[in-house]
Design a protein that fits this description.
Layout (H helix, E strand, L loop, with lengths): L1 H21 L12 E12 L12 E12 L6 E15 L2 E5 L5 E5 L6 E20 L9 E21 L2 E6 L7 E11 L2 E8 L9 E2 L2 E2 L3 E11 L1
Antiparallel strand pairs: 1-2, 1-13, 2-3, 3-6, 4-5, 6-7, 7-8, 7-9, 9-10, 10-13, 11-12
Amino acid sequence: MKTLILMAFLIGGFHTILSQEIETTAIDSFYKEDQFYAGITYNLLSNTPNNFSQQGFSTGFSLGFIKDMPINKQRNIAIAVGFGYGLNTFNQNILVSKNSFGQYEYSILSGSDTYSKNKFTTHMLELPIEFRWRTSTPTQYDFWRIYAGFKLGYTFANTTKHVGDLGAFKHHNVAGFNNFQYGLTLSAGYNTWNIHLYYALNSIFKDDVLIDGTKTDLNAVKLGLMFYIL
């Protein structure tokens, strides 16, 4: 948690310094909000199975660049498309293990199971698409914004890890994870600080994955901060 707070202030400080430098440049009546973005989130899981629980602090981090394309004369309404990387960790009690045939099995750890760590992590390439409204002008760099959009992600790597009475083991690139993830996004705020929300529209796991013999549409919900840096 301390690391996330430190990252937020470092990003915010960098944005303030950069904004001061921009103010000394010539006025550009055809300005665009082309930006690098960085986000930090608290990750939750929705549509969970019976006896599911999350432990600890599950975090997410994203970083990338987004291209701004204004669609009105005032240039305060725009469409934006970007490309980036996302890292997401979920600490919870879904055990991913292998049976004697080398097949993956998914089950809920019971309250009597003792373990110190049980999580899965995904690494994603992200394609954010945003519809943007803001109060910026060619000379106003501190402004209100509401950016609503859609994010498509491709999971190019995943890892599950368990440490407990059942042993210590890790699995890489488990086939049961959906390679493609997509969902709705919303970023709103003033200047550097923007609240960010992501709601996944599809399941983290593929349709044929059963948790304790039952299909579930487990999807991600992320709430945090998004920083846009010119």
